């Protein structure tokens, strides 16, 4: 048997309870910490979070750029408006030009038809005149008398001379339908203006001028007589007899005012107003 068998050990016995208590205290502290942290988190979650965003400072350069952009936008708008106005004006001008062209075509067509009708009437009148000449020649041959048209060579005086001087002064002027001078005439416009110089007021148109005075025979013409082509009251052309078998008249657009012999376009009749 060992000599130390009855000697008591110097080691102190373990104390289990305090260690358990410490451990329990640590655990409790940890749980308390967790509880506090959880409560703080819950409180933070309940409160709204406000975030502040700092805007860039409006510097002088940026302000200038903004102003320039606004000016550019305003100028662009003004340019668009101006262009729209120009387009509208151009459209109106084109429409008006189209309308004017249509009117001009209508007037040209009407003038063409009127000229064609006048020429046709002149041809019919010439044909009738030729027939009358043929019939007169036949009658003269059968009766032995002369029916030639008188071509007075007497010198015009007084008012007749003034009328003749006026119409001769217009020789070479243009023929224009409806023309009343001073540089363009139609047939009745020229005759009316000539007699106005001596205080005689004549109607404006050929039909009325052909009955304005006393009807005279073509074989007894005197300078200053008014010649007409067509029927009395329905004449389509007039002129002035100037003596020596000649007359002056505004004939047509191709000849204008001319002096021609009676044989150039034999008249139908004549009237005397002086």
Write the layout of secondary structure elements.
Elements (H helix, E strand, L loop, with lengths): L15 H31 L13 H84 L14 H12 L4 E2 L8 E2 L1 H10 L9 H4 L4 E3 L9 E4 L7 E7 L2 E7 L3 E6 L7 E4 L2
Parallel strand pairs: 1-2
Antiparallel strand pairs: 3-8, 4-5, 4-8, 5-6, 6-7
Helix pairs in contact: 3-4
Word description of this protein:
The chain has 274 residues and is of the alpha+beta class. Among the domains are: 88-146; 148-272, Alpha-Beta Complex (endopeptidase fold (from Nostoc punctiforme)). The chain is built from 5 helices and 8 strands; from the N terminus they run H-H-H-E-E-H-H-E-E-E-E-E-E. The chain has helices at 16-46, 60-143, 158-169, 187-196, 206-209, and strands spanning 174-175, 184-185, 214-216, 226-229, 237-243, 246-252, 256-261, 269-272. A hairpin with a 2-residue loop joins strand 5 (237-243) and strand 6 (246-252). It is rod-shaped, with a radius of gyration of 61 Å. The chain starts with 15 loop residues before the first helix and ends with a strand.
């Amino acid at each position: 048997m060992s000599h130390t068998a009855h000697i008591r050990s110097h080691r102190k016995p373990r104390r289990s309870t305090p260690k358990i208590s410490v451990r329990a205290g640590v655990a409790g502290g940890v749980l308390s910490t967790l509880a506090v942290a959880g409560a703080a988190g819950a409180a933070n979650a309940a409160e709204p979070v406000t975030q502040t965003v700092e805007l860039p400072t409006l510097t002088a350069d940026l302000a200038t750029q903004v102003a320039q952009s606004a000016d550019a936008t305003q100028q662009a708008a003004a340019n668009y408006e101006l262009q729209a106005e120009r387009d509208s004006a151009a459209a109106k001008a084109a429409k008006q030009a189209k309308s004017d062209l249509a009117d001009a075509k209508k007037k040209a067509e009407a003038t063409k038809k009127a000229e064609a009708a006048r020429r046709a009437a002149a041809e019919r009148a010439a044909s009738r005149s030729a027939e009358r000449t043929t019939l007169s020649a036949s009658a003269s041959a059968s009766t032995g008398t002369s029916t030639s048209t008188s071509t007075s060579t007497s010198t015009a005086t007084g008012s007749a001379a003034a009328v003749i001087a006026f119409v001769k002064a217009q020789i070479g002027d243009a023929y224009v339908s409806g023309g009343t001078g001073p540089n363009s005439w139609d047939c009745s416009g020229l005759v009316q203006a000539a007699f106005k110089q001596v205080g005689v007021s004549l109607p404006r148109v050929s039909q009325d001028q052909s009955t304005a005075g006393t009807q005279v025979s073509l074989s007894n013409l005197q300078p200053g007589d008014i010649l007409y082509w067509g029927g009395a009251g329905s004449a389509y052309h007039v002129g002035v007899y100037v003596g020596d078998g000649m007359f002056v008249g505004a004939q047509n657009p191709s000849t204008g005012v001319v002096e021609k012999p009676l044989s150039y376009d034999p008249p139908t009749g004549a009237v005397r107003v002086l």
